[in-house]
Design brief:
Bound molecules: pyridoxal-5'-phosphate
Mean pLDDT: 97
Radius of gyration: 21 Å
Number of helices: 14
Shape: globular
Order of helices and strands: HHEHEHEHEHEHEEHHHEHEHEEHEH
Distance between the termini: 48 Å
């Protein structure tokens, strides 16, 4: 089946007891045992729940995986994957990974016992050079946040596997509509479902999807159920509701972002546009090969430094100044401010999550803001 059909039907069916077309929400925390003491269905909601099972089946099929574990946030999904490793294991991650992931590794997982190296993954050779005898996982994020660096998933998965390590891909920005890490050789595809999968900025969640059933997935499942960073039934229901329109939303996100990127690339107030859909972007060729579209995220460096960038953000009317991404509404964020003093993000950088408003209106808003800020 095609992804548009999977997004609407996988894991879901008409409820045979009521005929309801849309699944019910099961807030029950506990489920009855059969007379012989066995569980005919579910047991306890920390371990499993009908709404979570529906969401997990749907996300697993969307990624072409063998199983999915859903979490209460993207960070909880990532932490559970890192905890599936052992203290003393070494993890390689991108030097501009989502800053929450960098902080999780540096401030929680390193004290827990993981070793961690940050490398520029635009070249698989950098990953090869960082391999140690105890390297057990290469964590890829592509396109990366906020510089939209592109990493070659197939080449990096090969480097990881040659070293006996797993390859995990944070596919939050790509989504299974645009990028299929498991088909490119990765062992795990990871999501903050808070972003494009939910798609409406109203529910937090995370997911880990595995290519193969086996010991890794069993360990992640155990951590999910035993450590308990699980999503509420209503949150699973809301995420699944968002997923149904994912393929069509992603088409429009890509189309709108491409138009916005092209306009900004020609604007005198903008020094640089980071968008893999532009032919001049250093990752364009790899992105064109491994993605079905270039996504809805881009970042720009505003001429005039931080003050000019803040002035442009202040003048925008349709773009809302807020963190996060992947919702139907367009957002703008000055990343250096949220990343704090240790950030390597240029101070002139604004990150745009291009939403589903009409692209002409988004372009007009950016033009008026650049003009009002004196950047035109
Ligand atoms: C937001 C985000 C995360 C973290 O997810 P939360 O749902 O906020 O915990 C991880 N990776 C990427 C790429 C993200 O954009």
């Amino acid at each position: 089946m095609n992804i548009e059909t999977i997004a609407i039907h996988a894991g879901q069916s008409v409820d045979p007891s009521t005929g309801a077309v849309i699944p019910a929400i099961y807030p029950s925390t506990t489920f009855e045992r059969a007379a012989d003491g066995s569980f005919p269905g579910y047991n306890y909601t920390r371990l499993d729940n009908p709404n979570r099972a529906m969401l997990e089946r749907c996300l697993s099929e969307l990624e072409g995986g063998a199983g999915c574990a859903a979490f209460s946030s993207g960070q909880a999904a990532a932490m559970s994957i890192f905890q599936a490793l052992r203290p003393g294991d070494h993890v390689i991650a991108p030097d501009d990974a989502y800053h929450g992931i960098t902080r999780l590794l540096r401030e929680t997982m390193v004290p827990w016992g993981l070793e961690y190296s940050a490398v520029d993954m635009t070249s698989p050779e950098n990953v090869r050079a960082a391999i140690r005898p105890n390297t057990r996982m290469v964590w890829v994020e592509t396109p990366s946040n906020p510089l939209l660096k592109v990493a070659d998933i197939a080449a990096i998965a090969e480097v990881a596997h040659a070293a006996g390590a797993l390859c995990a891909v944070d596919n939050t920005w790509g989504t299974p509509m645009l990028q299929r890490p498991l088909e490119l050789g990765a062992d795990l595809s990871v999501h903050s479902t808070t972003k494009y999968l939910g798609g409406h900025s109203d529910v937090l969640g995370g997911a880990a999807i595995v290519r193969e059933a086996g010991a890794l997935f069993e360990r992640i499942r155990f951590i999910q159920g035993n450590s308990g960073a699980v999503p509420a039934p209503f949150d699973c229901w809301l995420t699944l509701r968002g997923v149904r329109t994912l393929p069509y939303r992603m088409r429009a996100h890509c189309e709108n972002a491409q138009r916005v990127a092209q306009m900004l690339a020609e604007h005198p107030g903008i020094e640089r546009v980071h968008y893999p859909g532009l032919p001049g972007h250093p990752g364009h060729a790899v992105a064109a090969r491994q993605m079905r579209g270039f996504g809805g995220m881009l970042s720009v460096e505003v001429r005039g430094g931080q003050a000019a960038a803040m002035a442009v953000a202040a003048q925008l009317q349709i773009f809302t100044r807020a963190t996060s991404l992947g919702g139907v509404e367009s957002l703008v964020e000055h990343r250096a401010s949220i990343e704090g003093p240790e950030t390597k993000t240029p101070p002139s950088l604004l990150r745009l999550s291009v939403g589903l408003e009409h692209p002409d209106d988004l372009i007009a808003d950016l033009e008026q803001a650049l003009a009002a800020a004196g950047a035109a």
